[in-house]
Prior knowledge:
Layout: H1 3-19, E1 24-26, H2 27-30, H3 37-40, E2 50-52, H4 70-94, H5 102-107, H6 114-131, H7 143-153, H8 156-169, E3 174-181, E4 184-191, E5 206-212, H9 219-222, H10 226-233, H11 239-244
Antiparallel strand pairs: 1-2, 3-4, 3-5
Helix pairs in contact: 4-6, 7-8
This protein binds manganese (III) ion.
Amino acid sequence: MDRKQFLSRSLQAGIGALVAGPILASAASCNAPEEPASETAGGTTPLAPLVLAQVPMPYAFAALEPSIDAQTMEIHYTKHHAGYVKNANAAIVAESINISNEADLIANVGKYSTGLRNNVGGVWNHNFFWQVMGPGGKGAPEGKAMDAINAGFGDFEKFKIAFTEAGMKRFGSGWAWLVEQDGKLAIGSTANQDNPLMDVSDFKGKPLLALDVWEHAYYLKYQNKRNDYLANWWNVVNWDEVAKRMD
Ligand code: MN3
């Protein structure tokens, strides 16, 4: 990492920490302006707008080479993901959304505009995606996580085939997911930036692993060969992070 990149990433990390928690921040929690007494006397005081944030990238953009190239990672994080954050926060203000946390917003996103749904999903999904990948992937889960996958899908190879199929069959842009549904593991996919925590999603559950199959996630290196991207992506899955998300 060169000095400029280091400074840039340090700045991003600093901003994330300053705004508040690791994934999102409510402006209400840190710097809400004091309301004049004349406005609060009437009863309901609007919350300060919810402010969503990017998690600091947990590794260098080049750390997932050769499975995912550094340029793709940099554009994905600094342009696509950053764009979802900017647009989501603008939509939260424009639509006067009076919700104090990201989880409640995701769970009720069907009440708001399609633009807000897409951008809030884009924020959440990428924050999750960066964290379930990493350099030095072990290639397979261990211990309880492997036991759960064997119990759910027969064996790890069958799981990989089913997950890959979910990613390949998602027409156009979207995500493949491993989730927990009522104590059982399940594989599915969502369109666009929907995710299994959204009220509007036709595939629901607690996310354990996610794969971005939008062309922006792989096209620079793999062009139309989504299957090659999926095959190499297994090398950068951080199974320790997946295991943490299992009960
Ligand atoms: Mn993406």
